[in-house]
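Hi X.,

You mentioned you wanted examples for the new student's onboarding notes, showing what a folding record looks like when two proteins sit in one file. Here is a clean example. The first protein comes first, with its sequence line followed by its structure tokens.
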Amino acid sequence: MFFWFIGTAAISVWFVFRDEKFDYRVLGIGAILPDLIDIFSGGAWVFHSVLSSVLLLLVVMLVTSRGSIRRRRWLALPIGTFMHLVFDGAFTNTKVFWWPFSGLNFGGSPLPSFDRLVLDIPLEIAGLVMLWWLWREHSLQSKKARDRFFSTGQLVANYKGDVGQC
């Protein structure tokens, strides 16, 4: 699954923060990072544990300066991994989600994304619909708005085309 995680993370962050300076590119990477890493282990592993997202947040906070553009950008990565855990339903597998507090063995748990094959297609379609809504809502059909997104990761609310401020 790909679009489901990016779409749900982007929509959720947009509605919660309404921050026009938030980097949605980094959020998208964070939203798919747990599956990208854990797929190579053959199942749900460290990045489907809440501990990995907490440690990632800690690293970002320790290596960036308060109020800096770098911190603002890179905070989107652990936010994306937390969102992945929520929208993947990772919390339903106690052994993996609470690792290592629930024991050191993962028990060969499959990735939640691949464990519900029947639901994956409608969820991916829902993710595409969410991304389409964001595209329309933030006028990404406009070259100026799209260029701004690709260079900064920012979505601008109620953007009115190539004329005026972006």
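Then the second protein repeats the pattern, sequence line and then tokens:
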Amino acid sequence: MVKNRPSLSFGLPVFNGEKYLRQAIDSVRAQTYRDFELIISDNGSVDRTEDICREYLKKDDRISYYRSEKNRGLAWNWNRVFEVSSGVYFKWVAHDDIMAPQFVEKCINALEKDPTLILCHSKNNMINEFGDADGEYKYVAFIDSQKPLERFREVLNRFGDPTLAWLIFGVFRRDLLKNTRLWPSHIAGDWNLLAEISIVGHISEVPDFLFSRRKHTQSYTEKHYDSQPRIRDYRTESLFWTGNTKRPLIVMPSFQSCLELFRSVNHIHMSLSEQRLCYEEIWRWILGKGWKYLKSDIGYELDFQRMTINYGKRK
């Protein structure tokens, strides 16, 4: 046993989050579930993020603060808060979202009742930059089947569904989450992580609106996400995930996601027959739906190279 191990670890990765950070931290501290630690990892912020974090360090001894002097990318920072955590349960916290005070308590109650659960979330509200209600997220279905293959299939079929990503902000059973490879450092890495999670355990939902996802101009989805992948700036988006300062020559996010699916199936311990069925499911998805995303990758790359050549000729 870890000495003084908290029941729950909150992991809050942040980069330049001064505008909403206080609200996120206050939301954590207001939880009715009190046995927790809050780990904040600052990814080289250049605004007032560090000052705000150190202010809260003086207020609450459950808070710890880590700082990198340079931005190492989204995946590194989100994995870091998990790696230094010690709780029985774990929850990622975005610096711009908020929770109702009962969020964690109700999620952990569900996890304690069902040891096969890896993750529990609640229904989601949307709020705007001022914190005003701005709608609801509606899920097509829950990923609650007791069969790993069926859960895996559902995640595959919901590729490109932005509402799926918010499941990442639920409460995890830490020992099961530890069996995954966590966040891969490529575009849509959260989808790949959820696919891997779906093999390990099933996911449940508290039927109350206890989580508020904030929509604002500086959010990742607003800056990078678009329903037409070919007009997205994959190179800039890739830097966001990896933290590399050099723009990549070629970015094929859908191809990378497909490759990671095979790696996930190979990584998670399961019988050979289950593994074979999951491999078959990936190929079924590629031939039925995924090929459209792969085709978009190629089209985007050809358009980008053509634009680069024409730009060079004009110069």
